[in-house]
Amino acid sequence: MDPTCSSESIYNLIPSDWKEPPQPPRYVSIFKTAVKEDMQKFKTTMKTMGPPKVEVPSPKDFLKKHSKEKTLPPKKKFDRNEPKKPSVPLRTDHPVMGVQSEKNFIHTNAADVIMGVAKKPKPIFVDKRTGDKHDLEPSGLVPKYINKKDYGITPEYICKRNEDVKKAQEEYDKYIQENLRKAAMKRLSDEEREAVLQGLKKNWEEVHKESQSLSVFIDSIPKKIRKQKLEEEMKQLEHDIGVIEKHKIIYIANK
C-alpha cells in the first residue's frame, strides 16, 4: 500500500479522545439478602440427600451363613401302629342309589317359620344425619352394669377385710384399756402425804445445812459448781413442799 494514502484512512475520521460509553449498572433486587436468609433458616434437612448422619452398622452384626434359612419343625417319631386315613374307594365300588325321603320339606319349612319365634332385630343407633349406624349395646347408652345381680353389693373380700380391721381395732382398744387400768391414778392417804411432806422438809434441812457449811470465800470453779447445785436442789425441794402443802388431795400413777 502506498504510504501517502495512510492519512486518508477512514479511521482517521474518529476523534482520538473518544471513549466507549460505560454500561448501565446491573439490576439487583432489594430482597436478595432477605431471601437468602429465609432459605438458610427454613431449609429442610434430608430433603434430597438423605439423613445427615447415618448410623454405621456394627462389625459384629455381619450376615452369617444359613441365618436366613427357614427352620424345620422338630422331627416326629414314626409309629407304624398309628391309625391311618380311610382308604380310597375302589373303582368297582358303586354308591347306594335310589334312596328317597318321603319328607315334605316345603311344609316342614313353612311350619318351622310359622311356629318359630321371630328373630329380634339387633339394636342400633344412628349418630349422624347421613344415617351412620352403630351397635347400641357396646356404646354405653344402655344401662348394662346396673342391671347385674351383684351391682351395688360390697364384694366379699372387702367385707372380710373390714372385719379384720374391726377385729384388730377392738384388740388394740382392749390393750389400751388394760394399760390404762394398770396405770390408773392412786390417791395418797393423809398419812402418806404427811410422811412425804416430812421427808421433803428433812431433805431440805440437810441440803440447807450442807450449803451453810460451805466456805464464805468462793475462789474456785468446783466450789461455784457445788454451791449452784445445792441452791438448785433447795429450790426444787421448796417447790415440791409448797405443792404438797397447797393441795390436800394428791393422786399418783401406779407403776
Report on the architecture of this protein:
38% of the residues lie in helices and 5% in strands. It has helices spanning 32-41, 105-115, 156-182, 190-212, 221-246, and strands spanning 124-126, 133-135, 185-187, 251-253. It has a two-stranded antiparallel sheet. The protein has a two-stranded antiparallel sheet with strand order 3-4. The longest helix is centred in the middle third of the chain and has 27 residues, at 156-182. The model has no long low-confidence stretch (mean pLDDT 83).
SSE class? mainly alpha
- Specify the overall morphology: flat
Task: Tell me, rounded to a whole number, the average pLDDT.
Answer: 83
Tally of helical segments: 5
Low-confidence stretches: none
User: Oligomeric form of this entry?
Assistant: single chain
How large, in whole angstroms, is the Cα Rg?
59 Å
| Spatial arrangement of strands, main beta sheet | 1-2
Summarize the structure.
By secondary structure, the protein is mostly helical.
Structure characteristics:
mainly alpha, two-stranded antiparallel sheet, 5 helices, 38% helix
List the helices and strands and how they pair.
Elements: H1 32-41, H2 105-115, E1 124-126, E2 133-135, H3 156-182, E3 185-187, H4 190-212, H5 221-246, E4 251-253
Antiparallel strand pairs: 1-2, 3-4
